[in-house]
Design goal:
The protein is of the alpha+beta class. The chain is about 30% helix and about 35% strand. It is globular.
Length: about 110
């Protein structure tokens, strides 16, 4: 999964959008994995919200919208046990592609 480069750590609240496409026909397998990821991520320090959405027409498409207290806590999550466990579970042919975008609120 690719992550955009940062201009430097954001000290305020950040929004993170993750977009993943499952290998064709693996969307149903992804459901249980992303539900567990969301449940465990919500319990982590700094996580303000963690919502997962599935495409209505493309059921292999998943979008995750996260809100974190700051970028440092999000990065701890990204390199922590919960994320590593998820990445390990989807590595063997479950996720086809993915991209993560970190956003800051400007208005």
């Amino acid at each position: 999964m690719t992550t955009q480069p940062s201009r430097g750590l954001q000290s305020g609240t950040i929004i993170v959008q993750g977009r993943m496409t499952a290998v064709s026909g693996k969307g149903d397998v992804m459901v249980d994995l992303v539900k567990r990821l969301a449940r465990e991520s919500r319990a982590e320090e700094g996580c303000l919200s963690y919502d997962v959405f599935r495409g209505t027409h493309d059921t292999d498409l998943f979008v995750i919208l996260e809100r974190w207290e700051n970028e440092e806590l999000w990065r701890l999550h990204m390199y922590g046990t919960v994320s590593k466990s998820f990445n390990f579970a989807v590595a063997p042919g479950i996720v086809d592609s993915g991209h993560v975008t970190v956003l800051e609120k400007i208005a």
